[in-house]
Amino acid sequence: MENPERIHFVTGRLAEKALTEEVNRLSEKIGFQATVEVLPISVAALMTPRWIAGKINIPPGTDRVIVPGYCEHLAELQSLTTAVVETGPRDLRRLAEYFGLASGRPEGYGDYDIEIIAEINHAPDKTITELLSVAQDLVADGADVVDVGCKPGITWSGVGDSVAALVNEGIRVSIDSLNPIEIAAAASAGAELVLSVNATNRHAAADWGCEVVVIPDRFEDLQGLEETIYHLEKNSVRFRIDPILEPIGFGFSKSLGRYLQVRELFPQAELMMGIGNLSELTDCDSSGVNTLLLGFCQELAIGSILTTQVINWARTSVKECDLARRLVHHAVKNGVPPKHLEPLLIALRDPKVYSHPEGFIEDLTDKIKDQNYRIFTQNDEIHLLGKQQHFHNTDPFEIFDEMLDAGLTNLDASHSFYLGYEMCKAMIANQLGKEFNQDQALNWGYLTQSEKDRHRLSKRKRKRDAN
């Protein structure tokens, strides 16, 4: 390769061996020239840009400088060189992914063509202020239309005012009712879609001036569906069809077949699927159920789904559907499996758990000179390393008992709490098959909450920056 890119890596003493080995491997595979500079500090995560600026020696002709992943605000470093200064991954085991060797989202990923209709259940029980708050949250999570769910057996006198309030905030609204009185008031206030229409209320559909969702009079054999469709076409009413998804144990597989049947009968019609009968009524996390159903919808050109998020395990269904519709669109459009494309949908376990190189923990134990502790996971055990100390077990309580028996003098209440917190995360990571990195949140996909500003390490760094 002519004029290969020259990259200068900066690290601390403890990571020198592992980083050098990984950089050498990647430089051969990718084709860049690498230099590794080990600065006089044990833990690379404790470096700050100001501290690095006083120690670094960048070789002439360097194109890029990669500093440890905890560094922020690189202006001081950038002023020292014409090379591009950037923050690398916080874990050097992710260096291959950082350089684009690991699978990830391809360019252009994220398109979708499935509309999400998110229902607010029992809307009549909520004030307009409450409805607005819930609706805004649903839209923020990816809902295209907010469905106002009415209560069977009563006529909601406030439906018009509630719909108008939502529409005035720029929110697209549908009305979930079979009651013509409620529907008329909602449509007059700006609702653009009616869920649902069958033989009981189709006579009024032409008066509403909006699109409707057609459902069968009898689900199991689609009785009444064609008659209602004929009536709507005759009266120039726009519609989409929902053959109704049934729960497992109540005809689930046959109901999927009805969607296939309706698509054959009406190849050009718009279809909708209400997915709550699976996500709400099945004892499992909703993300997998939602993704599977949206895959079915994508292949069958079902252009909209209705979702709810009432029961606790399905309370983030809208966000899940927003992620899933992008995943299945890419898979179907490009003829590829929906794999290694959307890590945010993988919450319980991680897509991959990285192992440390053989001998890494033992080598690290020999090199630690300060009084701080490092925590790692390896081979289903928690490893706690300190100066000439290596404790390991599957149970954090056993490790802590060993530390107390060793007569360590740096275990005050604050430090003990911190170590207990981190070892608890490490134990969870081992149990579930997740990657653990000290002072970082476990990866829960789209549910992850950063711990960036929570830990003592971050506070220590801020104090050093201030000085």
Structural write-up:
With 467 residues, the protein is of the alpha/beta class. It has three domains: 93 residues, 3-Layer(aba) Sandwich (Rossmann fold), CATH 3.40.50; 227 residues, TIM Barrel (Alpha-Beta Barrel), CATH 3.20.20; 107 residues, no CATH class. The chain contains 17 helices and 15 strands. An eight-stranded parallel β-barrel has the order 5-6-7-8-9-10-11-12, surrounded by six helices. Strands 2-1-3-4 form a four-stranded parallel sheet, covered by helices on one side. Strands 13-14-15 form a three-stranded antiparallel sheet, sandwiched between helices. The model has no long low-confidence stretch (mean pLDDT 92).
Biggest sheet statistics: 8 strands, parallel, barrel
Helix content bin: 25-40%
CATH topology-level fold name of the largest domain: TIM Barrel
Oligomer: single chain
Low-confidence regions: none
Shape descriptor: elongated
- The fourth-level CATH homologous superfamily of the largest domain is Dihydropteroate synthase-like
Q: CATH first level of the largest domain: which class? A: Alpha Beta
Number of individual domains: 3
Rg calc: 29 Å
Number of helices: 17
Topology readout:
Elements: E1 6-11, H1 16-30, E2 33-38, H2 49-53, E3 64-67, H3 75-78, E4 84-87, H4 95-98, E5 115-120, H5 128-141, E6 145-149, H6 159-168, E7 173-176, H7 180-189, E8 193-197, H8 205-208, E9 211-214, H9 225-234, E10 239-241, H10 252-265, E11 270-274, H11 276-279, H12 286-299, E12 304-307, H13 317-334, H14 360-367, E13 374-378, E14 381-386, E15 389-393, H15 396-405, H16 413-432, H17 456-466
Helix pairs in contact: 5-6, 6-7, 12-13
